[in-house]
Amino acid sequence: MPSGTGGMTPHGRDDLSTGTDGMSSRAREAASPDLSFGTPGSLSPRVAVLGVLALIALVHVPLLGFQFVYDDGWTLVANGFLRAPADLALLFSPEAIARHVPDAFRPGLVVFDLLGYQLIGLSSGLHHALSIALHLGVCAVLVRWLRVLGAPFDLALGTAALFGLLAIHAEAVAVVSYREDLLAALLGLAAALAASRRRLALAAFLSLGACSMKLSAGAIPALWLLAEGLSPWRPRPPVTHLLRGALALALGVAAVIAYTFALYGALDPYGAGNLRVFSHRVGLGPVLAASLPIHLGYLQQILVPLGLSPEYTDRAAGLREPAVLLAGAALLALAGYGLACARRRPLVALAILGAFALALPTSNLFPMPNMRADRFMYLPSVPVCLGLAALLLTAGRWLSRHVPEDMRLFARVAPLAAVVVVQGSVRVATAAVYRDNSHLWGVAHVRAPDSARALAVLGELVLRNVPADAPREDKALAFARAEAHCRNAERHDPRYELPQLCFARLAAAREDWPEAYRRYQAALAVSPDRNAGIFAGLAEVSLDLPATSETTRTDLARRHLAEGLASYPYSPELHATAGRIFHRLADPEQATLHYQRSLALAPERPEALLANIELLLDLGRPTAATELLLHEKTAWLAADPDDRTALVARHRDALRLFEPSSILSADPVGVLAHEP
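^ that's the sequence the OP posted. Answer follows.
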């Protein structure tokens, strides 16, 4: 790479005389762009950074209208633990595992989500705004750290602009539950910045915070050592500084690893028998072989943003396959070139070796439920963006020497600006995939047609979108479509719980209770966790099993409820199901208890409220029903209008006995009017 951005001559770094600021006169001259920031009459660096951040924010504005998708339902919408701040202390004990607190092995993320929920509730727009703010924070900290390392301002700003609009980051920013990557990057880069400033206690604390969000930040010490040790823009610091900084950053990593081991008794939080981890099915060797083309593909997707997808299918591979051999040779050659550049071209070495180091945690050496995902490249793309920005600025300097003088300023930034515009345009189109679950999984199926997960989820979405009052022929057609998705999902992965759940819910919709019960049992047999919905399904279906005595049905329902509630006490779905079952079993005290608990764990979800109101009306207590409705007015208005109308129609006579204007004031759209 030419000398300009990297601060090096083609002859090596040893022949450069450095001044008191740590840069050689030749490097300083080469690093000073025509667009001189901070000089009289020029744009100030602070305004330039704010301008770039504003541009990045503007590109992300459409995200504010997106819904919750992917794991947002599990980690945020239906995560009752976030509504129980008094129980926060148990997060740091084995009870968190026993009670299946989502993401318990990422305690910092759970605390962040709990605080976020307490502040902004379940507003999808506000949560997306928070993700955008975190992404902007990562870009701002990246600029600051590069400047502390001695990087020229145009390089630091160009790197942040490229990183901020890189197309492969669409998934990480557009999906609320994936802000773990944003938080890990933000705190990890802040830790590196603190270590470079020799604030070691702060660096250790921030490193701890980063790894508590996602352990992939555990590679930050390696990146920091490369950046400080290679020192592309200033003299290499003393070895004692490198050792102290690396130790401070490593302390945070070690603390989270120790926490994980104490919680799980192992370093693998997913468990050795977890069938969602593909290496547990086929062995580590075939997975690592398949990872070589995956990581070469990541590099292609970063440089040329084609092939980005919300879903990838896990695959095994053999070391002798041509694609594996070619990918391995290419990655080995790239790593070798990075090592060879360590002395003469340290910026090149930092870009290459830094990317390898940061990609290590998601290289499938360690168990992961997904072998590949675009979001895995959020942090590893930092050094790639640095190297690419340096290359594009170098190209701009070359171009500026071959154009008229009045065009030189434009020519210097033209290559970088062109790439940023292309990446940002693809970023907008890619992010649109994540606007809602129906669109997301439709695209996922097209991009990964053999994905059992995409097929099973599509089947359930078909069932969920069938109106209750749809004609019989329309229902039969929808059920047939859902069954096709379920069958294809099972064919692609018979040992995965989602196809079995798809079949179970299809059978329940068809009122084939024995088949539904059998499929729920099959799902539970292969599912390692997230089983609250399975227990709820088993309990509810048990009460309708034909050719079974009432005593047996009741015992089965109670047993499945007890097992589920013991393992998933923070599940609002399970408590709502328990309320419905005890309602059917004529146990209003228990029904009320579970309805109230469900509403406390998910106050925005109206199902438990509607059921509790119906219970009170069945008990002849319309006054209590109305008081509850007024107290939970927001949840009532969030309910489906058809469900509200049906409830009122069923209890028209009871409500006519108690018809104060306060009822109608709780229902401005007139759903409580007593017309059939």
